Amino acid sequence: MDTSKYKALYLQETSEHISGIEKGLLALEKGDADATTVDHLFRHYHSIKGMSASMGYEPIQKLAHAQEDLLDRIRQKRMTATPTVTDALLRCLDGLKALLKRVEDGGALNLDIAPLYASIKDAIEGRLDQAAMTAPAAGRPAAGRPAPDAAAPGASGAAELKLSHVMKVEGKVFDDLMATVGDLIMALSTFKAISHGSRSIELKEGVYMLGKHINALHNNILSARMLPIEDLTEGLPRVIRDMSQKSGKEVELRIEGASLRLDRSTLEGLGAPLVHIIRNCVDHGIESVDERLRAGKPRSGVIQIKAYSKRDKVIIEVSDDGRGINAARIKEKARARGVAEERLRAMTDKDALMLVCLPGVSGADVVTDTSGRGVGMDVVKGVVEGLGGAIGISTVPGAGTRIDMELPLTTSIIKALLVTEGPELFLLPISRIERVLEVHRNEISGGRFSYDGAVVPVISLGAALGMAEAPERDYYSLIIVHGRTLSGVSPAVEAETREVAAIRVDAFGDEIDAYIRPLAPPISRLWGASGITVMGDGRAVFLLDVSQIVSKALLTA
Amino acid sequence: MSKRRVLIADDLLFFRAALRDILERGGYEVIGEAANGAEAFDKARTLSPDIVILDVVMPVKTGIDAAREISHLNMPLKIVMCSSLGYEPIVEEAIRAGACAYILKPLNEEAVLQTLVSLEADTP
């Protein structure tokens, strides 16, 4: 059989079976595997064995075959899946993964699987548990045998979350496609302006059709880039299993909304932060079994991941029911790191929590402190913000901590409103806009405006950006925006604490689909702007960072 | 002789693709694919193939159960089992269920085609 032709199919199908094995083994280990689970496990190994044999991947076939035999025995109730047995199977799984990685990379399958193979044979012959009894450390390999891990270099990174490799090669292609569509959309906006001012029905219709097709193309590319969050969270049960085994804590993972889809680049970027956050939950949030029982909590801690969409954003919440963060202690740490006293005094506890994102505060001494957490939270915040998102932390001492990540559903192309201030054009993201109003200057008094039963501060865009002062006008456009949408509290409290403000501009224009490029050095840290787009006529326009502008205005108000 | 029409049932796309290639090169027409035993039964009934190739270990319904049910249809077709499980009890059970040949995986092009040719010899 000409095997090269089937390699892609082989990799795709084995990876599905590997995920199935991972899920099944974890259920088996927890003791909540029924006959169907065992049956499925058997079939997964059987499939991998069969395909590997056809491909001539002998080590994989051999390893899978041994495990298939073992599962067959469990299936026929000729033996039971003791923790040592499942542990051996999990180690073998790492071995299989390492071998499959070699296949994928086109490398030689010269990993030494003998110890892994022997551990399965030992399990079948009933030697494994005997050995485990003489060596009380559970999960240790049989005495006298080299540790099976040695056979699986590259598989030790089980704490790394990876997306399925089926699409991997195409990532760059999609980025290029996206950039091209972005350029098309910007070019289209020029035609739209021309057709707007023209009397030609043919032109109007042509531009309309062009727009429709470009839009369809854009949507197709977007959906091709979307992957379910599942792809990312799939590996988490194993990560948590390994972490909790190491720390001796009991942790249960619940995932909600995993079928929600996100842009692949966003999802890919989330892998590391997610593992960081989970690690913090296990290491610092969730207490030991003893401590939990003393506090009247259930034995095992719960880490909950909840994903849901909100307008054009996706919110991913990661919460634990651990001991929470002590804000006062965090402030103390920040003080020790040289954060100004008056700033700390002005901070609410909620603001203080964000201090764990300061590199200095997330130092090792906070980590060992029982009240703190903070491994790499600065990294997490950086990554999430780099993806165009925001992060929020909320905690209830003694009851748990929640990290919220708010992420854009798609990157690069966003709906935005064109506004003019003096001679300049700017873009405001539609997702932040509540309403657009045209008002007489008398309706604005003392920098405030009555809106929706509340008085909101009015921010002059020109002044906020330090533009030359313009002569007073009779009428202004007010763009009612909200700053931070994420407060990490209940919806009721969130509505109350939401930062609403009015941005005053000279006039507003069309709503456009803008292809936003990130700001590159030397203007990458330009205050008040989060991106730039080039209009159809070649004019560069900044996308405004509403949160930044609003929070500064509120601070100085 | 017109082309023999074959239905392939295997839960793995990998084997369905490999088998399809082998059969097509051997002058057979693959008229359908099934990914489990239940699907195989439905397609055998509706597509009336000359030959049904069934994998043994499949979800929902095993190849052996499917073979049994397909034989009960009393249609003019031959059932061939195809599996990496080669131990006797399974082969015997497959034959009792109505299979008239057994192909062992990994797939070997020559062996597969020879098995199918041998089916013609004992056509009723």
Structure overview:
- The complex is a heterodimer of chains A (557) and B (124).
- Chain A has helices spanning 7-30, 35-55, 58-75, 83-105, 114-125, 127-134, 171-196, 201-225, 230-233, 236-247, 264-285, 289-294, 327-336, 341-346, 349-353, 364-368, 377-386, 461-464, 491-497, 546-556; strands spanning 226-228, 251-256, 261-263, 301-310, 313-320, 390-396, 400-408, 413-421, 424-429, 433-440, 448-451, 454-460, 475-482, 500-505, 507-515, 529-534, 540-544.
- In chain A, the strands form four sheets. Chain A has a five-stranded mixed sheet, covered by helices on one side.
- Chain A is 46% helix and 20% strand.
- In chain A, a hairpin with a 2-residue loop joins strand 4 (301-310) and strand 5.
- The radius of gyration of chain A is 28 Å and the shape is flat.
- With 557 residues, chain A is of the alpha+beta class.
- In chain A, helix 10 (236-247) packs parallel to helix 11.
- Chain A has four domains: 3-151, HPT domain (Four Helix Bundle (Hemerythrin (Met), subunit A)), CATH 1.20.120.160; 170-227; 229-408, Heat Shock Protein 90 (2-Layer Sandwich), CATH 3.30.565.10; 413-556, Beta Barrel (OB fold (Dihydrolipoamide Acetyltransferase, E2P)).
- Chain B is an alpha/beta fold.
- Chain B has a single domain, classed as Rossmann fold, CATH 3.40.50.2300.
- Chain B has helices spanning 13-25, 37-47, 63-72, 88-96, 109-121; strands at 5-9, 29-34, 51-55, 78-83, 99-104.
- A five-stranded parallel sheet of chain B has the order 2-1-3-4-5, with helices on both faces.
- In chain B, helix 2 (37-47) runs parallel beside helix 3.
- The relative contact order of chain B is 0.17.
- The mean pLDDT of chain B is 90.
- Chain A binds chain B through residues 1, 5-6, 9-10, 12-13, 40, 42-43, 46-47, 49-51, 53-54, 56, and chain B through 11-15, 17-18, 21-22, 57, 59, 84-85, 105-109.
